[in-house]
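## tool: complex_structure
## caller: assistant
## args:
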Amino acid sequence: MKDLEHLWKSHPLDPEKNRAPLLACIEACSACAVLCGACNDACIAENDPASIRGCIRATADCADICLATLRILLRLSATHAELLRSQLRTCQTACEICAAECDRLHSTHPHCHVCEEACKRCSQACWELASC
Amino acid sequence: MKDLEHLWKSHPLDPEKNRAPLLACIEACSACAVLCGACNDACIAENDPASIRGCIRATADCADICLATLRILLRLSATHAELLRSQLRTCQTACEICAAECDRLHSTHPHCHVCEEACKRCSQACWELASC
Amino acid sequence: MKDLEHLWKSHPLDPEKNRAPLLACIEACSACAVLCGACNDACIAENDPASIRGCIRATADCADICLATLRILLRLSATHAELLRSQLRTCQTACEICAAECDRLHSTHPHCHVCEEACKRCSQACWELASC
Amino acid sequence: MKDLEHLWKSHPLDPEKNRAPLLACIEACSACAVLCGACNDACIAENDPASIRGCIRATADCADICLATLRILLRLSATHAELLRSQLRTCQTACEICAAECDRLHSTHPHCHVCEEACKRCSQACWELASC
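## result:
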């Protein structure tokens, strides 16, 4: 995210004021989307994927929502505060649900533990940015 | 969407009960994403894109959110009702904001009028599905 | 797609010349993404998803690629012909692979048959547009 | 990407053999999508966006294609080698085109320079992974 901070220095709307929580949330959404995608694939590759459909579903939804949030956060022109907050709330919800699903599996499926931690960080980052 | 209805007949979780509002919302999200994408591009291609950045931003966000909603609605396994409602609310908000931006421009930019109508239909379809 | 054709009439770059194959490809990519998403979810919901991972993977990839193609085709400003052709080729390949995976399963999983038909139509539409 | 490497240790298909080029490509696609999204928004926010539509278009396409590539690379089950190569080739092409557009603007728009560097790294990473 050093590069993004560097890019913003010449962005006509350099988000100087909220830079730290915005960068943190972009980084968290990006990492969460990647780890949810990888955990989803690992779950499908397990011996008995039928038994962990809750996690397969939660990681798929969470990855989609984190990527949509990421795209939206990268736009600084003409931001609509109400939509941003609604998206952040939905993203936080998706991350909390996914973290809960992963938590139930993490003793037997260690990949879920890595995903769970990313979801918790992303949920927190969305909450913090929405509170700015 | 006839094909989707046909596909669902052999889906292990055929959504018989809520089929009509679910299909309507999937169709509305799909159409809205397409028309927002096209309207966004038309706005950028206009003589003075700098003057309509509000619409460029709103159509971009709305397309992203409609596509995420679409992906989520196509999943029937292990749906989490709270997340679904939150996503539908966010999608409705995005559509309402985009419709309002398009409404301000539609006399001079007829493409915005087509987009506005799609946003209104999608907002309504999200609201109806969330009320089921 | 009537709405998209209508929207384009006031697009500064109305694609009059290639309108038919472009509209056909946009419609085919949109339908294919929806049906691949639904078929992917149906496969995961089956009794023995572990036995049909080839189709789960192919539908997931095909949906992602069709949605990326869709977004790109909706942009008419400053199109780069080489990139468009490369994307259409990749999309055609994804559709052919997915159709072949679905073909192996369609007698036991009728939802795969609906998906297969959509993939074949999309593959054809990509080929036709790339040949313009 | 340390977390992804950690997650893969419990993935049933841990990609031990090609881990380094795969991780590098995932990281490069993720960074390139983020920086293209931010550069696209910065271009739209400039005083005269109409004069830089080539870069607005190239960054939008490149972000979409990098995100599709990212999703595909995160899946390890039932990978189809031909599709993977085709996607990597398309992604490399998108990155090269975007780097060239950014290169023309980077003296006057420093954000394009940051984006250009990310595109070049991603193009290289796609090429290296496709050569494995």
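## assistant note: Residues 18-130 of chain C form a domain with the Substrate Binding Domain Of Dnak; Chain:A; Domain 2 fold (CATH 1.20.1270.360). The radius of gyration of chain C is 16 Å. Handing back to user.
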